[in-house]
Every structure is written in C-alpha cells, then in structure tokens.
Write a structure and sequence with these properties.
Length: 302
C-alpha cells in the first residue's frame, strides 16, 4: 500500500519524452511526467528578435518567469527554430531517441512543420505522440483558450475570471495520463500510437458535477445543504464541508442545531442558525473548534 511516507513511485523512469509545447498545458504535462520519473527534453523556439540575452522563446518565460522556471525544472532545454533546416535536424536528432512526443499545435501547424502523424509513424514506428489541441475532431483548428472552454461548459460566473486555469491544468493531467496509455499500448502492439487530448474535453470533464446537477443552486453542494457552504465570520469567512452525518452532527452540536439530519440540513432555519453561529466567532475560534471537534472547516480572510 502506497502512503504519503512511502518512497515515491517513478513509473516513467527510463522513458524519454520530447516536448514542443509552449505556454501552460504542455509544459505542465511535461512537468508531471518528469515528476513520474521521465527524462524530459523541450525544444523551444529562439527568443524574439531584440530580446535580452537568456530570454526564453516560450511566452511563459516572458510574462511569468517564476512559473516558467518551475515548469521547466529538471527539463533539458534545446533552442531550435523548426522552420529552418538546422532546427529540423535538431528535432529529428531528438526524435530518434524519444519514446513520446508531446505537441500543442493545431493539426495544420504540425503539417507545416513536417510533422503529420502518418509521416512520423512511418519514420519512427515505436514513437508515440500525445497531441494537445483546443477542441477535438473537426474543431481542432478553432481558436480558443482556457477561458473560452470553461465558458462553453458553464464554468464562468458573471463577469468574474475563474480563480485558476482549470482547462489547461486538467488537460495537462489528461496528457500525462495519455503518455502512460501510449506506453502501455506499445507494450501490447509493439508500435507507437497517436492520442489527442482536447482542452475543451478537459473542461467538460471538470464540469460533469454541474452537468449532473450536484453544484446547481439549491443542490447538496450548490448551497442547499447548510453544512456545505461559505459563511461570513467575525473577521473573515469560513468554508464548511460537513456533508456526512457525523460531520453534520458535530457541526450542529456547536451551532445549536438539534439532531441534524438529511432533511433538516436543507431547512432555512438551519442555514440561519449556522450563519448566526459563524458570524459571532473569529477565524481563530473557528479553527480551534474544527480541530477539537473534527469538523471539516477552513477559514479565509474577508
């Protein structure tokens, strides 16, 4: 049994991955593969003309150097302009010793770079490719980004931007999972395979709880259950996640809710009682109560 104290597993040890990806989803997938033990190489385009020495050709390196550094830690970086003969030579030198190629171009761009799957598979039959695209199938050429994929799946509220890049990061996990799938498939077939990962599909997967109605207004985890909600407190907010009966009972005992059950936790009076209780306590008091009475709560600033 693997526990937090166990030695980390490295199922990708000995596997070589070459990435041509820029920005976030592909580099995040490569970072995850490196954490799983893979030997990772990234081909970056040259820096923009007139840029300072050492400037990255990956836009992430220009607008958030800290993120760029973390994403590429432990990755061997190679500068190559794939539109030139020298760049193509550097690319194929790496491809000859690569197990999985990671890309995040539109299909038409891959063709322009001389990298359509049929040609790659013919030249390197053991090579697999994980191709990250915006949307799947016929929509793969459509422009889009994390925000548009979240919007089409009902994950954008009012005029607020989402607090993180869910489609990009969800897609990066799907891409690292696809690397494992490709390697397992190669063990059986003896050949490489192409797996397409769409960021729109990642957003749709993350949106399933909403699609099922679980997070819609009034649903159990959509504000209907009084024990699963964010309440104001004396000096901030408290997120409470007391869904299970024993957690709800512990919360009810502190908030003065008599014998809470599945039905009473949806009652307006229960919401009012917990709201009044939380409003009268500080974050420090609530944190102490959470630890003492085993209640899943986390306080936040106002």
């Amino acid at each position: 049994m693997n526990t937090a104290s166990s030695k980390p597993l490295h199922p990708l040890k000995g596997v070589r991955i070459l990435s041509l990806c820029l920005n976030l989803p592909g580099p995040a997938a490569l970072m995850r593969c490196r954490q799983l033990g893979a030997t990772c190489v990234k081909l970056e385009p040259p820096a923009p003309a007139g840029a300072a020495p050492g400037t990255s050709g990956d836009p992430m390196g220009l607008y958030n150097r800290d993120a760029y550094n973390e994403l590429n830690q432990g990755v061997r970086l190679v500068r190559a302009d794939l539109k030139t003969e020298a760049g193509q030579k550097a690319l194929h030198k790496e491809l000859a010793k690569t197990d999985v190629l990671l890309t995040s171009f539109r299909p038409s761009a891959l063709v322009k770079l001389g990298l359509p799957w049929k040609a790659l598979h013919k030249q390197y039959p053991m090579l697999s490719q994980v191709a990250i695209v915006g949307a799947s199938g016929a929509r793969a050429e459509e422009p889009g980004h994390d925000l548009t994929y979240l919007a089409e799946n009902g994950l954008v509220t009012a005029l607020d931007l989402p607090p993180t890049l869910y489609a990009d990061m969800g897609g990066s996990l799907m891409a690292s999972e696809a690397v494992l799938q490709a390697l397992l498939a190669r063990q059986h077939s003896g050949k490489g395979s192409l797996i397409e990962i769409a960021l729109s599909d990642a957003a749709a997967y993350l949106a399933l709880p909403r699609h099922w109605g679980l997070t819609q207004a009034g649903a159990a985890v959509g504000g209907g259950h009084a024990g699963y909600k964010v309440y104001p407190c004396k000096d901030g907010r408290v997120a409470i996640a007391a869904l299970e009966p024993h957690f709800a009972a512990a919360l009810g005992a502190q908030a003065g809710v008599a014998k809470p059950n599945v039905m009473t936790m949806f009652a307006p009076a229960t919401h009012q009682a917990i709201a009044a209780w939380a409003q009268g306590l500080s974050r420090q008091q609530l944190d102490s109560l959470a630890a003492e009475h085993d209640i899943p709560m986390h306080t936040l600033p106002a």
